[in-house]
Structures are given as structure tokens and as C-alpha cells.
Write a structure and sequence with these properties.
heterodimer, A: alpha/beta, D-Maltodextrin-Binding Protein, domain 2, six-stranded mixed beta sheet, four-stranded mixed beta sheet, 20 helices, 12 strands, globular, B: mainly alpha, MetI-like fold, two-stranded antiparallel sheet, 2 strands, 72% helix, 1% strand
């Protein structure tokens, strides 16, 4: 009996010891969640400050970043930037884990959609005190707005790209007796062209076909039709509108007339169905220019681009939202000044750094800086680039930033659309359900008034 | 208790030392994170500001969300398609392999085990090609029978079944081998005795094979159900959870919140609720099968 007790005590102690030991090993302080922890504050042997930079562009543009980071490191003797490249899929896990452990980078890439919340939560630092006012004056109004939260700048724009434009095959237009230089401008024209272009060999038009893709790629079209799915202070669903009703009817017609295939041949961002001739027209983002010009150069001459058609053909309506990338300084960075200096060099300094990027990515995205556009005036390719010209004239000035409200809300919209074209549900009924879902979301999550841009 | 089972003191020490590494690892990577997760689930957790205690708010938000229930139900439906199909196929194949001798059974064993080592990601991509509307082999085959082309990954009625096929294909090799090892464990003398008593093939299966495989069945079902409910890669790559959330398995649902939410509260609370639910489900299966005790003891 006594031996038994002793043994139990021994086991108890052993396990207690293990738990304590592993708590120490896993770095769990046990004082409650959160709290400030230092991010990297190393110095090199020769006294240079080390700035950790995490970049989500590793897979495609690593050489570009390496080149200009090296130039920055050589250009001065106080700071050394060390870059880590993380693939898109692993980014969220890596960054969240690092932030939780207090080992996040000093500078990182961030898309526009995350800026307002990150600023609100103190995840990123305001940059006004570190980056000279003239550098902010160089921004266009639209790009300036996209990095400003409550009057302060929290990021410096890297690039911007409209998420929805029309791409089409000029050769297929000719075969169908359509003018390849005159793409459809109105919805009716799009339907008419689509019917003519739907053949045994290719579909008339492809676009977003998954709930996920519909949820975001339709933002531009919702704005075109008068508004997004929720009002500005996030207190009321605005999804059940006349505009959305017309949009749903239009989308449903594209299916009914068999202009859209029953099942889209790929995800929204894939350009391949257009390249290999499975479709004659496609809704996609300007980001595909990079692949078109670098990877599929042999078909590029056969491809035309235009703004998304609008109900009445007026391109001066919103047809796209702007996504894209910025650089930010982590809220816990010990060296915000040096971190901002690096951002300044890469994004806000000599326009050549950015010109080099746009050149490499074949102008698939756009600058938010006047001086970079001015420098591009001297670039032969950029100057004669019809696609770039079209987007700068007809898309960018009317585009809006990607909305930042909860993903659930965009999904409610997408589900409403799917109910109509997949299950044949009545449009009014489906939009009413989306309205109810969004209003329930607002209520259950105390969502009204939480828009960080409107606080 | 039999004398030989009483361990000597030294043996006990050795046993503890052998257990130490796994207990240490489990504590580090399972027990502590779990306790910590429960702890932070009561907070609006922030890495940069003071976290705010919010009590049960995170759990309430999850429990009020109809999409959470829908995701759980989708996971259950997925399991109800995958597990029984896999189970029957595996049982038939295990019996077939047992009855075959020598090289042929070895070949079949390796052939059906190969899918198990293929990653879910690769399988998803293969099946995206198979389910392609115009170029895919699935529509080609049903076309041979004069049927109309199906939009496998878009039609709400068939999509869950469509993504179950790769899940069954991936998992049934493993299940078959487990069942086969169970079959090989049954002493052949039982069957011989039954034969002398005049039992036919069905009776041998019903009165000997199935009762003696009960523990194996339990294991296969519990592992199958928990695995199927937690399916992630197939819907993530093939459908992103759509259309109309009909392939939104619980893990994909939680992942989407992790990726898209500005705060982590909802994600952690829903993950913990799922953990409780899967634990309860496994408990129910064990209880129904009354298999907490081994059949031998």
C-alpha cells in the first residue's frame, strides 16, 4: 500500500516536472495572452543594425528584391537588411505565429486590405515621423487614401492592380466576324458577342466560378451598380438593392444563354483557359499581364483588354476594385527609424527602383506615385503599352479600394448569387436572405460602428 | 494477476524513461497549447495590445453562426459517405487478398496501398482534371453511357460525393491492410472447427470473422470518422468549400476564419468546439460498439 502511494507520488512529481520543463522550453510565460515582446534587435559584429524584412513575393520576384536590398545595404553603413521570402500559402501561419511569439520582422509586405485593421490593433506603426512629407505628396490621391488611417500614413504603396477587367481573343473575334478593336462596352453587347463567340471549340466567356472567387471579384461590379453589401459604418446590410438585382439578372443570363460554361475551366486568376483557347473572353485582373507577357508571349498579340462592360456602356463607372501591396513597419519593431529608411529607399526614393519592378512584371500592376509614372514616360515599352494606357485612362480613375469588411459578408453575397444561378432561386428571395444573413452577422458580432476607417 | 506481469522496480523505471520523450513532446505540443488555447479563447487576443477579457463572447459568436453548424453537418455527411464506402471496399479487398496466395496478393497489397502515400494535394489536382467539364475523363465515361455532362464541382447535388471519391481512393488501402492484419490474426482452427460442424461460408463470416474483427472495425471506424470530419486538402483545393458552402468541412471553415478574420477569437473558439465535438463523437462510437475493453480480456 505504502509502496503504491510512493509510486503514485513519484509519477505525479515526474509529470509535474515534465510540464514545468516543457513550459519553459515552449516559451510560455503564463502571465496572460499578449504583451509586448521584442522583435529582432540584433546588431552585426561591426555595429550595423539588422532589419528583418519578410516578403511575400518570394516565388516570382526574389531576384528583383535581392538586387535592390543588396544595393540598399551597400548604399550606407548603418543598416543591414535581411530578407526572408515566404510563399503565399504559408504567409498567414508564419506571420501569425511569429507575431504571437514576438519574433516578427521589422518590415513586411502587406496588402491594402489589412492596413486599417492592423493600424487599429497597433500591429503596424504610423510612418509620418520617419518618412519625409514630400514623399507622401508624391502619391496620387487614390493611393494616398489607401494607406491612410485616421489622418496618418501606415504603409507606403508598392503597387496596385485592378481586380477585374475584360480580356479577349482577337483571333476568335475575327473568326466570329466581330471587330477585334471594338470589344463589348455594354452588357447587352457582351451578351450578343458572347452568343456569337460560344462554339464547340471554346466558351463565350469565363469568370469567377467558385464562391470564394465570386465573393471578391464581384466587388467592382457591386460598386458599379451603386454600392457594396453593407453601408459605410457597417450598421446595415445594403445588399438587397435594385442594382444587385440587375447584376444578378445579368449574371444569370450569361449562364442561361450558355455564354458561361456550366463549370468554369479554372479559378478566377488563372489565365490559361484564355491562352489555350478554351474561352474567347474572360474576366480577370491586370495581374495576369505578367504571365501573359513573360510566359505566353506567343499569344500576346492575339489578346485584347478592355474595361468590364457596364449596363449602359459608360466606362466612367467603377468597374474594378484595387488590390495590391505595400510595405509596413511592425508595431513592435525596435528600429522603426531604420526600418522606415529601408522602405523609403525601396518605395519612395529613386523612381528607378520601382521602374525596374514594373519593367520586370511587364506592367501588370500600377504605381501609386506621380514621379514613377513620370519616369515611365521615358520607358519605351511603357510608353507604347496600350493595355497600360487603357487601364490608366478608363479603369484606375474610377476604381475603389478593396472593401475590408468581414469576409462572411462577401460570402453572403456570393451565396445569394449562387442560389440564383445554380439552384434557380428567385432573385428577390435570394437577396432578401443575404440581407437577413448580413444583418444577423451585424447583430451577433456587435458589428455596427466597428469600421476602423470610420472610427 | 499472473506473476509474470508484475514488473520489477527496475523495469518500471525503464518504462518511465521510455515514456518520457513522448510525454515531453505531447506536453510541449499538445497539452500546453491546448490549455493555452482554452485560456486565450476567453480573451480578445492581441499580440500588440493588452488582451481584453471577453468571457464567453467568442463562443457565443460561434454558436450563433449557422455556418458553423452547416460546416459540422457537412463534415458528418462527408464522413457518412466516405467511411462506410471505404469500410465495405476494404473488407471485401482484405478477404480477397487473404484468399489469394503468394505473389498476386503481394502485388494487390502494394497496388492498393500506393494511393495512401499520395498527398491529398496531388490527388486533388488529379481529380480536378478528372472532373473538368469538357476535357475530364469523368464526363467522358458517363458520356459513353449516353448521360448528360455533369458539372461535378459546381452542382450542389453531386459535389460532396465528387470530392469523396478521392478521399475513399486515398484511404482505403490503409484500411484494407489493417483489416487484412486482423483477418490473419484469426486462428485458422476456428474455421476448421466450424467446417466440421457444417458451417457454410456466410455462417463462418457472420459467427467468426465479424465478431473477432470487432476491435479492428472500431479502430477503422473511429479513425475514419475523425479523419473524414477533419478533411481539409480536398475541398480546399478542389472547391474552396463551395458551391453554397456544400463542401465547407469544419477544418476549412476554421482555416478561412483564421485567414480572413482580423481577430483570432472566433477561430480559437470554433477550433475548441470542434475538438469537443470530435471527442464526443469518438466516445459515442466506442460506446455503441461497447469496445472499451479488448475482446480477448
Amino acid at each position: 500500500m505504502i509502496a503504491q502511494l510512493k509510486r503514485n507520488k513519484f509519477i505525479g512529481l515526474l509529470f509535474a516536472a515534465i510540464i514545468v520543463l516543457s513550459s519553459i522550453l515552449s516559451g510560455c510565460s503564463g502571465t496572460g495572452p499578449g504583451g509586448e515582446k521584442a522583435s529582432s534587435n540584433e546588431k552585426t559584429k561591426d555595429g550595423k543594425t539588422v532589419i528583418e524584412f519578410w516578403c511575400s513575393w518570394g516565388d516570382s520576384k526574389k531576384d528583383y528584391f535581392e538586387k535592390w536590398i543588396n544595393k540598399f545595404n551597400e548604399s550606407q553603413d548603418k543598416i543591414v537588411v535581411k530578407a526572408t521570402y515566404i510563399a503565399g500559402d504559408a504567409w498567414d501561419q508564419r506571420i501569425t505565429a511569429a507575431q504571437a511569439a514576438g519574433t516578427g520582422p521589422d518590415v513586411m509586405t502587406m496588402n491594402y486590405g489589412k492596413i486599417a485593421y492592423s493600424a487599429d490593433q497597433g500591429k503596424i506603426k504610423a510612418l509620418d515621423e520617419y518618412i519625409d512629407a514630400t514623399k507622401w505628396d508624391d502619391l496620387y490621391d487614390w493611393s494616398n487614401k489607401m494607406v491612410t488611417v485616421n489622418g496618418k500614413h501606415y504603409a507606403y504603396p508598392f503597387n496596385a492592380e485592378p481586380g477585374s477587367i475584360l480580356l479577349y481573343r482577337k483571333d476568335f473575334f475575327k473568326e466570329a466576324g466581330l471587330d477585334p478593336e471594338n470589344p463589348p462596352k455594354t452588357w447587352d453587347e457582351l451578351i450578343e458577342y458572347g452568343k456569337k463567340l460560344s462554339t464547340d471549340k471554346h466558351y463565350g466567356l469565363t469568370a469567377a466560378g467558385t464562391t470564394d472567387d465570386l465573393a471578391w471579384s464581384h466587388w467592382g461590379m457591386q460598386a458599379m451598380m451603386g454600392g457594396l453589401a453593407i453601408n459605410d459604418d457597417w450598421s446595415k446590410a445594403t445588399v438587397n438593392s435594385e442594382g444587385n438585382k440587375k447584376l444578378f439578372e445579368f449574371w444569370n443570363t450569361l449562364y442561361k444563354e450558355k455564354i458561361f460554361p456550366k463549370q468554369m475551366p479554372g479559378l478566377y486568376t488563372e489565365i490559361e483557359p484564355l491562352v489555350d483557347g478554351r474561352t474567347a473572353m474572360m474576366f480577370n485582373g491586370s495581374f495576369v499581364f505578367d504571365a501573359l507577357r513573360n510566359k505566353y508571349a506567343d499569344v500576346v498579340d492575339n489578346i485584347g483588354v478592355a474595361p468590364l462592360p457596364t449596363p449602359d456602356g459608360d466606362y466612367k463607372k467603377t468597374t474594378a476594385t484595387l488590390g495590391g501591396w505595400t510595405f509596413v513597419v511592425d508595431g513592435n519593431s525596435k528600429h522603426p527609424k531604420e526600418a522606415a529608411q529601408f522602405i523609403d529607399y525601396m518605395l519612395a526614393g529613386d523612381p528607378e527602383v520601382m521602374v525596374d519592378f514594373f519593367n520586370l512584371s511587364k506592367f501588370s500592376s500600377f504605381t501609386g506615385r506621380k514621379s514613377v509614372d513620370a519616369a515611365l514616360e521615358d520607358n519605351e515599352f511603357a510608353k507604347n503599352d496600350e493595355w497600360r494606357k487603357m487601364i490608366q485612362e478608363k479603369v484606375l480613375p474610377y476604381a475603389i479600394p478593396e472593401p475590408i469588411y468581414a469576409w462572411d459578408i462577401s460570402m453572403s453575397y456570393a451565396n445569394a448569387l449562387e442560389r440564383v444561378y445554380l439552384k434557380g432561386e428567385d432573385i428577390d428571395k435570394s437577396l432578401a436572405q443575404a440581407e437577413k444573413e448580413i444583418n444577423d452577422y451585424i447583430k451577433n458580432n456587435n458589428y455596427a460602428g466597428t469600421n476602423p476607417n470610420k472610427k | 494477476m499472473n506473476q509474470k506481469y508484475i514488473l520489477k522496480r527496475n523495469d518500471r523505471k525503464t518504462a518511465y524513461i521510455m515514456l518520457l520523450p513522448i510525454v515531453l513532446l505531447l506536453t510541449c505540443f499538445v497539452v500546453i497549447p491546448l490549455i493555452y488555447a482554452i485560456f486565450v479563447s476567453f480573451y480578445e487576443w492581441s499580440f500588440y495590445k493588452e488582451s481584453i477579457f471577453v468571457g464567453l463572447t467568442n463562443f457565443k459568436r460561434v454558436l450563433k453562426d449557422h455556418l458553423f453548424y452547416k460546416a459540422i453537418w457537412t463534415g458528418v455527411k462527408f464522413a457518412l459517405i466516405v467511411v462506410p464506402t471505404q469500410f465495405v471496399l476494404a473488407f471485401l479487398f482484405a478477404n480477397l487478398i487473404k484468399s489469394l496466395g503468394g505473389k498476386l496478393s503481394g502485388f494487390i497489397k502494394s497496388a492498393i496501398y500506393i494511393p495512401y502515400v499520395i498527398s491529398g494535394v496531388v490527388a486533388s489536382i488529379i481529380f480536378i482534371f478528372i472532373y473538368d467539364f469538357d476535357g475530364g475523363i469523368a464526363n467522358y465515361i458517363i458520356g459513353l453511357f449516353g448521360l448528360e455532362k455533369t458539372a461535378w464541382l459546381i452542382d450542389v447535388k453531386v459535389v460532396l460525393g465528387a470530392i469523396s471519391v478521392p478521399a475513399i481512393w486515398l484511404g482505403f488501402g490503409f484500411t484494407t491492410l489493417i483489416m487484412l492484419s486482423g483477418l490473419n490474426d484469426i486462428p485458422s482452427s476456428y474455421y476448421e472447427a466450424a467446417e466440421i460442424d457444417g458451417a457454410n461460408g456466410f455462417q463462418k463470416m457472420w459467427y467468426i470473422t465479424i465478431p473477432l474483427l470487432r476491435n479492428i472495425f472500431m479502430y477503422v471506424i473511429v479513425v475514419g470518422i475523425t479523419g473524414a470530419i477533419q478533411q481539409f486538402d480536398l475541398p480546399f483545393i478542389m472547391t474552396k468549400g463551395g458551391p453554397l458552402n456544400s463542401t465547407m468541412t469544419p477544418n476549412l471553415f476554421i482555416y478561412n476564419h483564421f485567414i480572413n478574420d482580423p481577430y483570432l477569437g472566433y477561430t480559437i473558439a470554433s477550433a475548441l468546439l470542434l475538438f469537443v465535438l470530435i471527442g464526443a463523437l469518438a466516445g459515442i462510437v466506442f460506446k455503441l460498439g461497447n469496445s472499451t475493453k479488448s475482446m480477448d480480456s
